[in-house]
Amino acid sequence: YAAVFTPTYSGSYQLSFNITAANTNFNHPDNSIFLDDVRVLEGVSQLFQSGFETPALASSGAFTYPANGSGTVTTGDWAFTNYSGLIRGVNSGQWGPLNAAEGSQRGLVQAYSGTLSKVTTASSLALVAGHSYTVTFYQSARPGPVGNEGVLTYNVSFNILAPVVTSDSSTGTSGTPFSFQIAATNSPTTYGATGLPSGLNV
Q: How far apart are CA 110 and CA 83, in angstroms?
């Protein structure tokens, strides 16, 4: 699969695969898809490439996700939220054939008992406004013993990180004109402040 993104703002972004809805038309609580060999390119230049090989799981059919399917755990290049994680090798009785497109493991993204999951890059990517970026990846559905277990709705998105103020602090003297330039990451469009003395504004 491939998708093209053209950001409106320059800044630091994280790539995310987000489940938005699951198939509820069968008597089974689990919907799952697998991801592998995710790449981000600008033209022919590769900015990011990762399978789901870290950490290496011990045996074929092994899988892992955050404890009790809750919270976020970061491993390797990825942050896994709720019932998302890693799966290794083949366990046809439960998961169907899992021949990974790259390496021996895949990303596992599930909707389980109404809980939706997501997978996000652990680090950010610096994207430039108006430039086009292509995301390519392999995706397959879990066949499973019941059937229709890979029927999910999900989106692939770049999410800009919140701006962080990088300016040093400054002090002023009462009755003296004061000016201070605020600098921040990720191209903020507005600034604000609370608790300022009377007559001082941003």
A: 5
Q: What is the pLDDT of residues 77-132, one digit of tens each?
A: 999 999 999 988 765 555 555 566 678 888 989 888 888 999 999 999 999 999 99
Give whole-number Cα distances, 66 to 69, 90, 153, 157, in Å. 5, 21, 21, 22
pLDDT tens digit string along 13-39? 999 999 988 766 555 567 788 899 999
Q: Give the single-character DSSP code of 169.
A: P
- Alpha carbon distances (Å) from 18 to 84, 117, 185, 202: 10, 6, 25, 37
Q: In the structure encoding, which two tokens stand for residue 12, read together?
A: 């630091």
Residue for token pair 């507005």: 190
Contacts (Cβ under 8 Å, ≥6 apart) of 195? none
Q: How far apart are CA 33 and CA 95, in angstroms?
A: 10
Q: What share of the chain is helix, strand, coil (3-state, %, to 5)?
A: 0, 45, 55
Beta strands in the chain (DSSP E): 2-5, 11-22, 30-42, 45-50, 63-64, 72-75, 78-81, 84-88, 105-112, 118-121, 125-127, 133-141, 152-160
